[in-house]
């Protein structure tokens, strides 16, 4: 059990990352409550032992119910998509910014919450034109409404928590992959590639495929949350990634080799809002949190692909 915290609330705890985090917290011996509206999450994902409050974070009564007695809040609930945020700019801002405001208000009203860890994204950064890893002081010039909403939510988290006397930490997550990721047309490129190849389709790479990304395993992301829970620093923001740059062309080639499928990708024009080069400088998280990625992309792909294929077959 965490020495500092015994009772946690996880917003978005029925989602991909959230359910893995809830499982970890339960293993630590903590009491965990999940609040999720199940718009993208699934109740079946919530590990046994967690209390579940079904509802939106925008519903202050539901949020208050979920946070009753909580000492730490892990805020993961969000609309997570870059390209679609141009079409759903109001919904994106409503969930990611106004939703964060509601979570913070409910946390302060609970009077027991001592720390809030809020989830942000690599989408807050400007492109790395020098093709170097981006540290937390890299310019924050989002290219998408999604990135704008996450950056504003970061600032609101630190500002509101400081005023309310609550510790805060923000984790900027890079491209998370791993078992249990729900298929979506906008996020989770490994899951998208595998599902399309399984169906005999020809996957599309937007642009030339030379854009660089940082693929971090979901269990390393969970480690980042756990380290941030144990840490004492407040008002700080941390990159959580692998620290390694991977091109989409390399990723696609590796996926097809593991699946033993010879299928060239289609190439479409670059999508609006997409960064050409973004991979994490994780030295601050290593230095201040003791964070250390353990799951490399190349070594993890076979098991992750097998799990995705099994899930896809079961859904047919």
Characterize this entry briefly.
It contains nine helices and 14 strands. The chain has about 325 residues and is an alpha/beta fold. It has a seven-stranded parallel beta sheet with strand order 3-2-1-4-5-6-11, sandwiched between helices.
Search tags:
three-stranded mixed β-sheet, 39% helix, 14 strands, alpha/beta, seven-stranded parallel β-sheet, globular, 9 helices, 18% strand, Rossmann fold, 316 residues
Question: How would you characterize this protein structure?
Answer:
The mean pLDDT is 93. This protein has helices at 16-27, 60-67, 89-110, 145-164, 189-198, 218-230, 248-259, 283-289, 297-315, and strands spanning 7-11, 31-36, 51-54, 72-75, 115-121, 167-173, 175-177, 204-206, 212-213, 215-217, 236-240, 246-247, 266-268, 277-278. Helix 3 (89-110) links the parallel strand 4 and strand 5 (115-121). The protein has 316 residues and is an alpha/beta fold. 39% of the residues lie in helices and 18% in strands. Helix 2 (60-67) packs across helix 3, helix 3 runs parallel beside helix 4 (145-164) and helix 5 packs across helix 9 (297-315). The protein has a 7-stranded parallel β-sheet with strand order 3-2-1-4-5-6-11, sandwiched between helices. It has a domain at 7-176 and 218-243 and 284-289: 3-Layer(aba) Sandwich (Rossmann fold), CATH 3.40.50.720.
